[in-house]
Amino acid sequence: MENTTPKHTPGPWKKHESVQTGEFFVTAGEQDQIHIARTGRHDETSRCDARLIAAAPELLEALEELYDSVDSCVEFTPEKLWKARMAIAKAKGEQ
C-alpha cells in the first residue's frame, strides 16, 4: 500500500486535561511541545474525542501493517494482531 498522503506529526500522541479550563487537548513530541488538537469543551464526549485523536497514529500504523499482511498474502502474526488490539484499546480507553 503506497502512502501518497502528507506525513502527519509522528506519535505517540498524548491526551491531557487542562487544570485551568477543563478542556481536553492532544500533544506530541518531546516535552509535549506540539499541540495537535483542543476540544474546546469539558465533558465526557470531549474526553472520548481526545482519547480517540491521541490513538490515531497507532491505529493508522496497525491498520497499515494488517492491510499489508493481507495484501501480500502473508499470514497474520501475533505481534501485528496484538499491536492492532492495543491501538484499538487505546482509542476506546481500555488501556
Description:
- The protein is α+β, with helices and mostly antiparallel strands.
- The chain has one domain (13-92).
- The protein has two helices and three strands.
- It has a three-stranded antiparallel beta sheet with strand order 1-2-3, covered by helices on one side.
- A hairpin with a 6-residue loop joins strand 1 (13-17) and strand 2.
- The longest helix has 28 residues, at 44-71.
- The chain is elongated.
- It starts with 12 loop residues before the first strand and ends with a helix.
Oligomer: single chain
**Broad structural category:** alpha+beta
The stretches of 5 or more residues where confidence is low (pLDDT under 50) are: none
How many strands, what sense, and barrel or not for the largest sheet? 3 strands, antiparallel
Strand order of the largest sheet: 1-2-3
> Which series of helices and strands comes N to C?
EEEHH
Q: Specify Rg, calculated over alpha carbons.
A: 15 Å
Shape: elongated
Using brief descriptors, characterize the structure shown.
95 residues, alpha+beta
Strand and helix layout:
Blueprint: E1 13-17, E2 24-28, E3 34-38, H1 44-71, H2 78-92
Antiparallel strand pairs: 1-2, 2-3
Compact description:
With 95 residues, the chain is α+β, with helices and mostly antiparallel strands. Helices cover 45% and strands 16% of the residues.
